[in-house]
Amino acid sequence: MSQATWDLLVESLWPITLGAVRGTIPLALMSFALGLVLALVLALMRLSSRWWLSGVARGYISVVRGTPLLVQLFVIFYGLPSIGVVISPWPSAVIAFSINVGGYAAEVIRAAILSVPKGQWEAAYMIGMSHRLALRRIILPQAARVSVPPLSNTFISLVKDTSLASLILVTELFRQAQQVAAFSQEFMLLYLEAAGVYWVICLALSTVQGSLEKRLDRYVAH
Amino acid sequence: MSPTDAAHGSLEPPAGAGAEDEGGRPLLRVRGLRKSFGSTEVLRSVDLSLDRGKVLALIGPSGSGKTTVLRCLNGLEIADGGTLAVGEDVSVDFASRPTRRQLAALRDRSAMVFQHYNLFPHKTVLENVIEGPVVVQRRPRTEAVADAEGLLDRVGLAQKRDAYPFELSGGQQQRVGIVRALALQPALLLFDEPTSALDPELVGDVLGLIKELAHEGWTMVIVTHELQFAREVAHEVAFVDGGTIVEHGDPDLVLRAPQQERTRQFVHRLLHPF
Question: Does the interface predicted TM-score (ipTM) exceed 0.95?
Answer without folding.
Answer: no
